[in-house]
Amino acid sequence: xxxxxxxxxxxxxxxxxxxxxxxxxxxxxxxxxxxxxxxxxxxxxxxxxxxxxxxxxxxxxxxxxxxxxxxxxxxxxxxxxxxxxxxxxxx
Length: 91
Description:
Layout: H1 2-24, H2 28-31, E1 38-39, H3 41-44, H4 53-59, E2 67-68, H5 69-82
Helix pairs in contact: 1-4, 1-5
Protein name: EF-hand domain-containing protein
Keywords: Signal
Signal peptide: 1-22
């Protein structure tokens, strides 16, 4: 039950992060300050300040202490899948 709550929370945050990417034209590479191919907690909270360490850790599926592009995309996809239709961004 707690994992489901955490995943819903991550999904909601992923939707917000997706909007931030779109608004600021921020790319994964520009956030990856050390160019290691993953976003650290410090790097991702630049555009996702409400992300908690617990949520970050839950999204880090390979336990590498960083989120890969695939892990970030998975959170954003989960957000899009769980978002109510009226919360979808306008196109």
